[in-house]
Amino acid sequence: MGGLTILSVWARTRFGEGKLCMMKKPQIFVLVIFLLSLPAVYGQSILSKKINPDLSSYSMSHIQDWRKQTKADLETMLDDLDAAQKESFIKVAERANSFSWPPLLATVYLEFQSTGNRTNYERLVDERRKILCQLVLGELMEKRGRFLSQIANGLWLTLEESTWVSPAHIVSQRSGAGLPDPTDRYIDLVAARTAADLSFLYFLMKDDLDMVSPHLARKIKKELSDRIIKPYIKDSYWWMSFDTDFINNWNIWINTNVLKTILLVEDDEQQLHAVLRKLLLSADRFIDSYPEDGAIDEGASYWSHAGGELGQLLLWLTSSSADRLSFADQQKINNIGHYIQHTHIADNVFVNFADASYRQIASAAKIWTYGMLFDDPQRKSLSAQMYALDKASFNTSSLHTFFMYLPYIHELDTWKIGQEEKESVFYESLGLSVISADTKGKGIAFAGMGGHNGVSHNHNDVGSFILYHDGVPVLIDVGVATYNKQTFSAARYSLWHTQSQWHNLPLINGVGQRDGKAFRATDVRYREDKGKAFYSLDIAKAYPESAKVHTWKRSFELDKRKQKINVVEDFELTQWLKPSELMFISQIRPTVQGGALIYALPDNRTMYLRFDGAKVRLKVEEKSTADERLRQQWGDYVYRSSVEIIGNSKKEKIAYTMEIK
After folding, report:
1. How far is CA 388 from the centre of its chain?
2. Do 313 and 392 have their domain in common?
C-alpha cells in the first residue's frame, strides 16, 4: 500500500488502529538557502524544520512512484465500495447526464459590485462543479464510457471560464471589484478548490479524457499552470501571510488545495520545488499564528476550513514523503485538532461566537485525520458522530472532498459512537471558557468569551456568553447573516448582529462596544473546584471612552450538580449618563414575572433568570431575523430581553441567577 493511504496504514500499524520568480538551478540553490534562513524570523516553523531540503528532494524525485501507487490505491478503494453504493452514484450520474449547463453571464458576476449579491453567481458555479463531480464519480464506478461526453462538456466549460475566482473576492485585484482583469491573476478559495477538483479529474481520468480528445488533458494542465501554479510562484498574495500579521483560514485552505494540485499534476521538478518551499513557509505562518493551546479565534464553524485543513496538509505531506515524516510529537498541532472536540456541545451543536453558526456538521474526515494522527478514540468517536448525522458528507459535489472521505469510509460507518467525553476547558489565549455540567453532554453547557474585538470575523462580543441545556440553545449568539457586500467592509458594524447590544452584554451608559484589538477583556480568570467552575473577566476596556466606565467585572459561578449559575455584575462608572442595561438574547420568547425572566424549554424544563426586582426593570422585544441564513438557524424571530439598572449610582453590584428546573 502507498499513496494517500500510506498515512492511514502507518497510523494503524504504529498506533493500533515576497515575490519569487522562476529561476535556473544555481539560483534555486541560492533561493533554498535564503528560504531556510527565514523561519527563525517567523517563529516555530514546524513544517520548514521537519521538511529539510533532503526530504523535499526525496519526495519530488519519487513523485511518479507515489502517483502510480496512489492511483492504484484509489482505484482499489473505488472497486471495494459495495454494489449498492456504486449503484447510487451511477444513478446520480445518469440524472446529471442530461443536465443543461447554465451560462455564467458577466451581468451576474457584476451583481456583487452593483448590489452586493454574490450568491447568484456562486450558486451557478457550485451547480456546475457538482454536476461535473457526479458525472466523474459515475464513470469511475461504472467504467463504460457513457458519461464521457457530458464530462467533456462540463470540463470544457470550466476550463473556458474567464475566472475561477468568486465575484466577492475579485476585489483584491489591482482594479478592484467588477469583472476579472485578464492580466491580473488572483488565487482565492474558490479557484483553489476548483484546481483541486480538476487535479483529481486529470489524475484519475487522463486516459479516458484522451479517448475523447488528448487536448482536454493538456488544457487542464495549462489552465492549472496559468491560473494557479505560476501565479503562486510569482506573486505574494495577502493570504500567504508574508507581509501581514492578519492570518486566517484562507492561508491553510488555499495552501492545502495548491499542494494537492502540484502533487497530482505538476511534472516540472523546478516548479514543484518552488511551490513546495514557498508553501511550507506560508503554512508555517499559519501554524505560528496559533497560540500554543490551539484555539481558533474564528470559532468552531471555521475549524473545518482552518485546523481541519491543516490536518489534510500534513496528511498529504506525510504520504508524499513515503512516511518519512511524522507530526505525532507536535503538541501544538494536537491542540489545534482538539479545539473542535472541546467546543462541541451535543449532536450538531457547537460553541459559536463572531461569524460562527451554532449548528454545523463538522468535517468527519478532517476530525478522523487528527484522531488517527494522535491515536485519539474520542476524536474518532466525534468524527463518526458527525458522519452519522450527515452521511451525505461522503458526497457527490466535490471530487477532492469525496476522495478525502474514501480511505476512511468503512471506519466512519462502523466506529462506535458515544465514547466522546465532555470536559470543561479554558483557552487562555482567547479568554474562552467552555464548561460542561456532564461528561456526556447532558445538562447545562456554558461558554464565555474574553479576548478582544480585533479577531478574524469579529463581532463586538467581548465578555458575552452562551448557555445551552441538553444541547438546546437558551441564551444565544445569533451569529452572522448571509454574506454580502457589507459583511467585510467599513459598514460591517452597521449590521445589527455584529453589534454588542445584540449579544449577552451590558449597554453601558447607553454605549456599546467598539471594534479593534484595543477593545479587550482584562483580568480573565478561570478555575474549577469540587463540582463548581468559576469564570470572571473585566470588560470595561472593550468599551470606548464615551461609555464612562472604569471597571465592569462579570463573575460566573457554575454549580454543575444544581444546574445553576450565579452571576455578579460588579461595575464602577466614571460618570453616570443614563441607565445601563443588561442584554440577553434568546431563540425562546421569555415571560416576565416580577424580577424574573422565564424561558420554557423542551421536555417541560424551565430556565429562570432571576434578579432583585427592586434594582431592575425588565422588558422583552422581538427581532425579525429576515435573512435566510439566520432564519434557518433560529426561525423567524429572536428575542432581546433588556434588564435596565434602576438608579444613577456610579458604583453597583447586580447579582442574578440562571437556574434550570
Report:
1. 20
2. no
